[in-house]
Amino acid sequence: MDLISFLKMKALAEALSRCFLNLENWSKNISTTQPFD
Does the pLDDT at position 33 exceed 90? Predict the structure, then answer.
């Protein structure tokens, strides 16, 4: 794998992990504001 492909994959992985973190925080906020029983 060349460097450019590696950097693209790295950027994609970072973007995905950031998305998952945002989703996690969002779901936490939802659960704290609207507790589901």
Answer: no
Task: Tell me the pTM.
Answer: 0.61
Q: How many Å apart are CA 20 and CA 7, to the nearest integer?
A: 20
Q: How far apart are CA 21 and CA 18, in angstroms?
A: 5
Q: CB neighbours (10 Å) of residue 16?
A: 10
pLDDT at 13: 97
Give the C-alpha distances (Å, rounded to integers) separating 18 from 1, 7, 34. 24, 16, 24
Distance CA 13, CA 18 (A): 9
